[in-house]
Amino acid sequence: MTKKLLLAVLTMFGLVAHTYAQDKTVTGTVTDAKDGAALPGVTVRYAKGGAVTDGTGHFSIKVPSAISKLIFSSVGYTTQEVAIPASGTVNVALAASVSQLDEVVVSVGSRSSQRTITDSPLPINIFSTSDLKSTGQVSFDKALQYRVPSFNTVNTPVNDASTLLDPYELRNLGPSRTLILVNGKRKNLSSLLYVQFAPGRGETGVDLSSIPTDAIKRVEVLSDGASAQYGSDAIAGVMNVILKDKFEYSSLTVNSGITGKGDGASYGLSFNGGANFAEKGFVNYTVGFNQQDNAIRSGNIDLVSEQFAFGGDPTTDAQIAAYLKRFPTGNNKNGTGATTAAKFLINAGVPISPTAQLYANAAFVAKKVLSNANYRQPYWKQDYGLLHAAGTEYIGYEPTFEGDLTDYNATIGVKDEADGWKKDISFTIGGNQQLYSVDNTVNHSLKGKSPISFKTGGYNFSHMVGNIDLSKQVTEKLNVAFGSEMRSETYQIIAGDTSSYSGEGSNSFPGIRAENAKSNTRFNFGAYLDLSYDITDKWLVNGTVRGENYSDFGGTFVWKASTRYKILDDKIVLRGSASTGFRAPTLHQIYAQSTQAAFVGGQIALSGLFNNKSVVARALGIPTLKPEKSNNYTIGLGLQPAKNLSITLDYYNIDISDRIVYSSSIRTNDASSVLGQILTSNNLKTVQFFINGIKTNTQGLDYVVSYKNVLVGTGKMNFNLAGNFTLNNEIVGDPTTPAAIKAAGSSILSTQIKSLLTKSRPQYKAIFGVDYMIGKLQLNLNNTLFGKTEFQDLDNSYFFFDANGVANTSGGTNAMEYIKQEFSPAVVTDLNVGYNFTNKLSASFTINNL
């Protein structure tokens, strides 16, 4: 069988095998106790196996002869345990349960009360593992892209270390402003500071791709500022990943895919299993492996711009023209990097008393990436005879980048309930390390004596977190919760080989210099108090206050107030919130520092990122970083005109002051200026830094429409419409530019960086999905509309026009003000077809971007 045929077969069938003993067959139908409507998607299980009802509410399951009872459960309904009669037919009517819905949103709603999505004063979305899998995406973060309206992420080509972290955003606010929790506990950040010219520049975030989808029970997304409840990083919202717990059945998932152009093949294998013991004990584990190949999308190089950048004389211009005629793409292999990953996750709970449970979870991920740098054409770089065989034609060389990542997290804790008090005490550790190397390149300062492979260093981030949370329903109307969090964070910069940073350093990715390698640690302590009060059975108010103290910049105080009012027999819900928030600068932003050679406007120049504690930064008048501060306002409307129809619409307005930005490359042609003198004295052509430099305002609308259980033929159809529309995303006022930089005619933000902050994400996104279940067949059709996006290219910032319209690099009107790309709105259509052959075997077939 050929490779292409094998890929096609694997693409069509993602097999899920459920293994357990089997002796007798039990069948039946599950309905709603109130109106008798069939209930699809209900879990039917016993200790070591299970099944799910189809679109007509019917199920069939084989169980060992010794099994006498089955358990029926579904979100929003009371769980029932039913005896198996001699006939082998079990028909069950499930009653709706508020407490079951309460459990879904406890982790991201009020810290003191459990509310349903309708009851909640905050906008919350819930996504099950089947919702994520039906996207056909191979990683958790990419699945969220096609499920969460205001969530966006991106792959960037020729991205070196950034291959190890795709930046994501909720509500256009960057990865560092969305807090990621696993079972309600803070997940560690990536060690990578994202510096590519792409959305998320200058920030870091959690490596969402490290979380195996098969280990997820559901995902709760709170799209509202929650710094008062959870502390730093929660300005845009909170995403809580709930892991699978009680064991139902083992599953083996095999998946594969390939792009329509025959590259970018993906292969995946994942096993989820576990066991139940005692009355409430469980262990659930997932092991997964996946491979993602390169998808190359190189474009042809523009001759005029290439001659402007590298030529300037007739001989070189002719050489460039001849080379590009022969190799129109310049031999570049621009596209996504190749990734290999192995993931392991375990979640367990052990009852230690009738009311207490010892719980624990742990995860480990090992990932290796390989990406290609831009090809070094012979008119750009020489290899000194090191990279091509003697006597053969030299046509250039292509450096490759390799990154090795390990990511881990683990939590152990105890939950207990006594005298109405719920207590949760836990300890969490987590870390992320990345080590880099480059191959097939040279250090041009060493010329013929250069190595051709380099270890260029890396980064490490780790944290330890202790949490104590207590809550109680004091009266029928009053809930109270309070708690504290203690956290220690460490950020380490690891130096590369000496040859990787001496002189110009290894070409394409210079190593980390020894003088910049260091380790820094900080501590913080936070405490919160949360009160929730039902003034009437229709009107709820909630308030939270929080204080935090950091060892490196002091303390901060934030608050949040929210309310909800229900009218017309709870068919209309009015809700709103107001809050203040903060985001502590990451240790990466405080201490990261590097000096390296860069290709700028056709010339090699030293450029440097200097942290705010450096002599250069202080000379430039750059202050020490302080926390960002935010004011969040949300007002929303919820409608439930019919049992199966629900509509929510929420408006948000977020102001962030002292927002931390990664500056432009600061330069000047005036050597006599203060800026010029500082650059000259430090042998620098450009300098970059982090600064609390801007204030931003972001406004938008989130909406969700869901219409379920529509009878179509003998099956049922569900309709879902969800979207986000950005009303405003702008920088308010002028950036805070230090006096020495402003006097030299420079700014901390170029036009390109402003565009990244305000225009680089879709102005709007809408997701329209249709699910149809008929017998054993399931169909999912999703259309995702991505709105207009703009992009301005970094390299063009060095091109200028003089008064006669002639390009130069010495002054004039910046061409970047006029040169940009605009991406028109586009729809991505995805189709997923699933079929349950038996209760042990199912298959699914997904076509992405149909």
- Stretches where pLDDT is under 50 for at least 5 consecutive residues are 1-22, 98-107, 109-116, 795-813
Overall shape: it is: globular
Radius of gyration: 29 Å
Mean pLDDT: 85
Number of strands: 46
Strand content: over 45%
Which structural class do you get from the secondary structure elements?
mainly beta
First-last Cα distance: 26 Å
Summary?
With 850 residues, this protein is mainly β. Strand 27 (519-534) and strand 28 form a beta hairpin.
Quick tags:
46 strands, 48% strand, disordered N terminus, globular, five-stranded mixed beta sheet, mainly beta, 22-stranded antiparallel barrel, 850 residues
What does this protein look like?
- The protein has 850 residues and is mostly beta strands.
- The chain is built from 13 helices and 46 strands.
- The chain has a 22-stranded antiparallel β-barrel. Strands 9-14-15-12-13 form a 5-stranded mixed β-sheet. Strands 4-3-6-7 form a 4-stranded antiparallel β-sheet, with no helix packed on it.
- A hairpin with a 4-residue loop joins β27 and β28.
- The two termini are 26 Å apart.
- The N terminus is likely disordered.
List the helices and strands and how they pair.
Layout: H1 3-12, E1 15-17, E2 24-32, E3 43-46, E4 49-52, E5 58-63, E6 69-73, E7 80-83, E8 92-94, H2 98-105, E9 124-128, H3 129-133, H4 140-145, E10 151-153, E11 168-170, E12 178-182, E13 185-186, E14 216-222, H5 227-230, E15 237-243, E16 251-257, E17 266-277, E18 281-292, E19 295-296, H6 303-310, H7 314-326, E20 335-336, E21 338-351, E22 357-372, E23 400-418, E24 421-439, E25 453-473, E26 478-494, H8 498-501, E27 519-534, E28 539-550, E29 554-567, E30 572-583, H9 587-591, E31 594-600, E32 603-609, H10 615-619, E33 628-642, E34 645-662, H11 674-681, E35 686-688, E36 690-712, E37 715-732, H12 739-743, H13 751-758, E38 764-774, E39 777-786, E40 789-791, E41 800-801, E42 807-808, E43 813-814, E44 821-823, E45 826-836, E46 841-847
Parallel strand pairs: 2-8, 12-15, 32-35
Antiparallel strand pairs: 1-16, 1-46, 2-5, 3-4, 3-6, 6-7, 9-14, 10-11, 12-13, 14-15, 16-17, 17-18, 18-21, 19-20, 21-22, 22-23, 23-24, 24-25, 25-26, 26-27, 27-28, 28-29, 29-30, 30-33, 31-32, 33-34, 34-36, 36-37, 37-38, 38-39, 39-45, 40-44, 41-42, 41-43, 45-46
Helix pairs in contact: 6-7
